[in-house]
Amino acid sequence: MSDTYDLIVIGGGTGGYPAAIRAGQLGMKAVCINAWLNRDNKPAYGGTCLNAGCIPSKALLESSEMFHRAGHELATHGVKVNAPTLDLVAMQARKSKITSSLTGGIGALFKANGVTGLEGTARLMGKGKVEYTSHSGEKKVLEGKHIIVATGSEPVELKIAPFDHKQICDSWDALDFTEVPGRLGIIGAGVIGVELGSVWARLGSKVTILEALPTFLPMVDQTIAKDAQRQFTKQGLDIRLGAKVISAKSNGKEAVVEYESEGAKKSETFDKLIVAVGRRPYTKGLNAEGVGLELDPRGFVKVDKNYKTNLAGVYATGDVIGGLMLAHKAIEEGVALVEQLHGEKTEVNYNAVPSVIYTTPEVAWVGLTEEQAKAAGHEVKIGASPFAANGRAKALEAATGSVKVISDAKTDRILGVHMIGPYVSEILQSVVVALEFGATTADLQLTMHGHPTLAEALHEAYLAVDGRAIHAINKKKVS
Description:
479 residues; globular
């Protein structure tokens, strides 16, 4: 006998559990199978984001920033304290408490929305059937009208730098260090690399980041990316571009890295080495080959614009289908898909997906870069405003960075906004709304922003597009 459902969701991360909840809200009988086990071998919902990525990393970023401010900034505010001492055990405990509170809440949301949650693994069997195996080994066949594969992703492991999870670590390992590494190496200067580098540099590590590409943060508008590189270098991150790693080996105490830079072979020794070169789709144990589920050459599940795979009744969302590997993108895909299955006409606007790097200062962007806009054939007009002219930023002792707005010169529509500065992750959300509604530059120039707020820098950048900035020097004639 098999248990029958309207929807079977394989994966309890951000691509999966929101889809199951939305299905429950719409009156569908839904089950979510969650395979995740934490370090203590206990199951937890939320996948990488809640357990080993977004949430724990932000908790440590915030704690490490507090530590840094106590030692370097409080005196500027007239607050005199003794030199702070680090209690890494307490810091890690706080991080764990935050993650467990959020993962535990998902079970309550399932109950409130009539969703069945199962802990264990899932295997596609074809013809709408899924074999569920609990963590204790018990098996059961589930049958579903619809099946969503939302199994997420895992850190890429390099053959030239295999993980031993002691000296050569992945991003999850790097969130659980019990001591501050004296010398920390990071392969990869992407979002994960610079965030983890920032955490441990603030806590006392000497951080070296090796990046094979010659350009820093190529996905970010290069005006903003270059400023970010300057800021991070000033903070002590040794960012080496064009550094191609040849090999990394652990001797049991240290990690020895051989790399090539400017035509010469070089070597560095680190107490810990983090490999942060991206993530790859996770489809282990899914039986994709056995049922003929089509994957692309990189292992991502192939889907059409409505997330349909080549198998009848089987869909996929989130990291496992590629694109931007972001939790909020996975959430929106899962919810949109379920609503489509319910007969509604919904879709995800991939031109308005926000991205953030939670360093200090933060880097945030949405839409096209200036380079992308020009390559796409747009005639662009640009506006920018520095946080140095922003009263709230000065009050925060965080008056660094700027906002850059890219607009279409012919239609006046906003094409993209890129920024580096204090709490720009929060400021960015108004831009996402603007892009979603197809706002023009003029629309946003006429939108009043509170004073004094950080968002005024965004308003000034909108005005600067047409040479109308009030509190920043315009680079074009007033129009």
